[in-house]
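SAMPLE LOG
Freezer: B-3
Tube label: C17
Construct: single chain, 173 aa
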Amino acid sequence: MAAAQDGILEELRRLRARVPQLTGALAADADGLVLAQDTPGVDPETVAALTGATRALAAQLADETGQGDLRELLLRGVYGYVATYAAGAGAVVTLLAQDRVNVGRLHLEGRRAGARIGELVDSAAAEHTQAITKAPAKSAPARARAARTSRAKPEDPRAAATAPTAARTTTES
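STRUCTURE (predicted):
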């Protein structure tokens, strides 16, 4: 995931270079945990947690009103914008922008960055899942050999009945 985080951070920095009115950018997972951030002057953990909560509510609103899966969310405040874009199956990209930003450009670049970051996050998640499910397994002959050598042979009860025994006879006088 470290390589994915480096790629995500690089994408966020390129995005900030393409849209100079951006004052911050971060990527977070669905639980609101920071994956990567470039948000000077803003607490990224708080923004990511609020983004996660807002995303969940917005997704519920979109679903309840029949609008389908959440793709993006735009909030306009007195001093600027907060825009959140879906990034793959389990992440979001949140952008902070000045009030004078071209909103069309913000959407264009935000959607593109969300798609690229989504690819990075999804591929890292797939690699992680493969690593977990790929446990080293013994080969079949080794398992069979281990099973044969570790078992004790059961005693045959018939063999004990027919085996010669040393009988002792005593005479009493």
